[in-house]
Structures are given as C-alpha cells and as structure tokens.
Amino acid sequence: MSDININQVLSQMRSMSIEASSPTIKPAEASDSGSDFAAMLKDSIDSVNDTQKASGALSKSFEMGDADVSLAEVMIASQKASVSFQAMLQVRNKLVDAYKDVMNMPM
Predict the structure, then answer these.
(1) Which residue among 20, 24, 32, 55 sits deepest, i.e. has the most Cβ atoms within 10 Å of its Cβ?
(2) Is residue 71 included in any domain, yes or no?
(3) Would residue 13 count as lying in a domain?
C-alpha cells in the first residue's frame, strides 16, 4: 500500500470520526423522533429478514449442487444472519424491559 493510499484512508477515518461525534438529531426534528424511531425499527427488522432470506437462498443453492456457491459463502451468510437475529433479539429484550419499567412507574 502506498503512502498516498494510507493518507487517504487516514483522512477518511478522521472525517468519519468527526461525523460520528456530531449530533445527528437537530432540535427541530426532535418532535418527529417517534415516527423516525418506528421507521428505523421497521427498517432494521426488514434488514434482518432480508439477511435471513439471503442465507436461506444460499443454503438451498448449495444443497442443490450449484457450483457457483461455496460452503464458505454459505457458512458466512448463515453466521451473519444469526448475529443479526441475535442483535435484534437483544434490542427487543431491552425495549420490553424499558416498557415494563415505564409501566411500573408510580403515577
């Protein structure tokens, strides 16, 4: 890797770090955060579903003897689907716990 490529990568990493540290929600958008959260949650669930469907399709192709699909690809897709599902499950558990906490608050 040349020095130019390293410098470009470092500058990209710095700009990504700056973007990550800056607030993403502006005060004017705070009132719409409920619908944004619902849309974000739906998109993430759809993404997990798509990952699982892709993993299933790769598995089926491999089982049918497709020469273009290797066992390594199938295993990686399966692990990606598993990790994304486990992450979604943990988010769901945290949301249920937060809901229970809110419901148990005295009025």
Answers:
(1) 55
(2) yes
(3) no
pLDDT surpassing 60 at residue 51: yes
Contacts of 68 (CB under 8 A, 6+ apart): 61
CB atoms within 10 A of CB 60: 12
Residue 75's domain comprises 27-103
Where is pLDDT greater, at 56 or 2? Answer: 56
Q: How many CB atoms neighbour CB 44 within 10 A? A: 14
Q: Which candidate, 75, 78, 88, places its Cα nearest to that of 55? A: 78
In this structure, the number of other CB atoms found within 10 A of the CB of residue 77 comes to: 20
pLDDT of residue 11: 74
Asked if 74 and 52 count as a contact pair (C-beta separation under 8 A), the reply is no
The verdict on pTM exceeding 0.85 is: no
Residue 35: predicted pLDDT: 75
